[in-house]
Specification:
Elements: H1 2-15, E1 39-48, E2 61-62, E3 68-71, E4 76-80, E5 85-91, E6 96-101, E7 110-119, E8 123-128, E9 140-146
Antiparallel strand pairs: 1-2, 1-3, 1-9, 3-4, 4-5, 5-6, 6-7, 7-8, 8-9
Length: about 150
């Protein structure tokens, strides 16, 4: 009986684990920068998350003189507005865009993560992700148009 138990334990320890064990949290791989994202995008409005899937005139509060974000194919960005920022970004297969802001005289470095819900030749809409939605309310969505 001991030999059978010992053989079973040795078999499980040898074959039960693989060399490429992953952590319990899923890792979503980074993807290539989509060609439609490359270029300059101007912030033009904000609307409620509940309205983002509506096709008939969603309520958008429009803004004048919105900031401009320029994404490059080498995964860098520049953001021009009241304060000018720059940094790098990644985008994952599930359309999560994460910007890594470099430190400036006004701020320390920080990260900002959003979920892109619309990306075409002229419009980019994004909303917050679970990571940066700390409240109990749904996120607002932001609209950008390509310049």
């Amino acid at each position: 009986m001991r030999k059978i138990l010992l053989t079973l334990i040795i078999s499980l320890s040898l074959f039960g684990c693989s060399k490429n064990e992953e952590s319990s949290s899923p890792i979503i791989p980074q993807t290539k920068v989509p060609a439609k994202l490359i270029g300059s995008w101007k912030f033009v409005g904000i609307y409620n998350y509940f309205d983002i899937d509506q096709t008939d005139n969603p309520h958008i509060e429009y803004y004048e003189n919105g900031e401009v974000i320029t994404f490059s194919s080498n995964s860098t960005f520049n953001q021009n507005g009241e304060i000018n920022y720059n940094g790098t970004f990644t985008i994952t297969e599930d359309s999560v865009l994460k910007r890594f802001y470099n430190a400036t005289n006004e701020t320390n470095s920080f990260n900002y993560e959003v979920k892109i819900v619309t990306l075409n030749d002229s419009i980019m809409d994004y909303t917050c992700t679970n990571e940066n939605n700390l409240g109990t309310c749904p996120c607002e969505a932001y609209r950008f148009v390509k310049l």
